[in-house]
Sequence to fold (416 residues):
Amino acid sequence: MTADFSWVPADNIVDVDLAGEYLRQNFATVLPEWAKRPPFYVMQGGYPQLVCSRYRDVTEVLTDTSRFSTVRPSDPEAARFVKFKPDKFASVETLPQMDGERHARIRRLIAEPFSAPAVARLQGDIDRALDSLVSAIPVNDGVIDLMPGFARELMVVALLDTVLQLDEAQKAVFIRMNRALPLTARVKPGEPFPEEYHSAFAATAAAINDLIATRRAHPGSDLLSQLILTRDGSDVLSDKELFDLIFTFSAAALESTAASMGAIVLTLCRHPHILAQIRQDSALIPAAVEECLRLQGPGYIIVTRYALQDTDIGGVKAPKGIPVYISPQAASYDPERYADPLVFDLQRQNRKILTFGGGIHFCAGSRLARLVLHKGLEKLLARFARLALADKNFVPHYFGAASEAQLSSLPLRVDV
Ligand code: HEM
Fold:
């Protein structure tokens, strides 16, 4: 039986492919317009999806767990809707795919290793790892490519080398898996994932299971050992939960940080007076990074929520089960939230960006990510007294998994 979607108002449907290349390459011009409009519908394969892009709508969906969840309601009424974005992790159950007490329990168990004191303890090791990375960036005729030479390696050295303490072979397996994730970007529900995805997944599964066994037998100072030892009263993480977490951390961390660093440096090169200011005073780096991420983060839409009941968002109907896509990046351009939203304002008050999400699914690794971005930028500026776009007419090209926008290349002139 075909569902009846005649209730969707034709004048509030936007003709855009959410997983398409047009949006990925043009989000910087499309999203500032979305930021000003109430939620709207997008028809994908004949099924309505709702998109929220104003700051207040995005915040409402992220924080109201009684009306919205990352877990789809299971009854037939909700099954009328189809989500046109695959759950890309096969048998892995990631934290964003859980809600309620199941989710809260795992967040309690991982809270300590991601706490402020735990991340502060990592600072010395991360500093040393980033020093080696920055000093090894290859320069050719006065030009570097920031993406392969630096941005894409940041979390490899910070998370895989330093925090998880993987050896070269284990690292290669995790990197291969991360590079296979974008292959799922255009897979429709019911279609098979590409063979390379399955093969990379199998190799990663074997590597993670092996790691869990080794670290259980000989716990060290790495993150997995901490997760094995962590407890909440008598509660501990099972092998399956450890597996899912390690997979999730790696999938959540590598490309998002690479894309963020690319976006930050591109934004600074487009605002040379700000770059000059933070060179003079490195205490300005955290504020500059937040403002850069507000202007351009690593993606344009994040994980979907589902309406748990018939409701509305900003006066727009959201029937039970409808997939709701939220765009923190569009929210960053909302003029009701940010005065002159497209202007780089280092002194902006009450900036509070949504780049790391909000509510119960707020990014577990945000402290680690910010540390790596701040330190990485500081060390990049220390090595290169000049950083400027190699081509002043540079046109960015983006790639990534669904809704991610990572620069494929960022050539910079570094000779003075
Ligand atoms: C600049 C880099 C990063 C960005 C922009 C980012 C962004 C986000 C966002 C927006 C969410 C929320 C997803 C949702 O609401 O559905 C999220 C969740 C998450 N992130 Fe990050 N992330 C980054 C780096 C990291 C790192 C380094 C780690 C771990 C090592 C990490 C681990 C996680 C985890 C585990 C979740 C799921 C939290 C939950 O569902 O409770 N992220 N991240």
About this structure: The chain has one domain: 10-413. Residues 10-413 form a domain with the Cytochrome p450 fold (CATH 1.10.630.10). The pocket of protoporphyrin IX containing FE is lined by residues 70, 95-96, 107, 159, 248-249, 252-253, 256-257, 260, 297-298, 302-303, 355-357, 361, 363-365, 368-369 (CB under 6 Å). The CA atoms of residues 141 and 415 lie 8 Å apart.
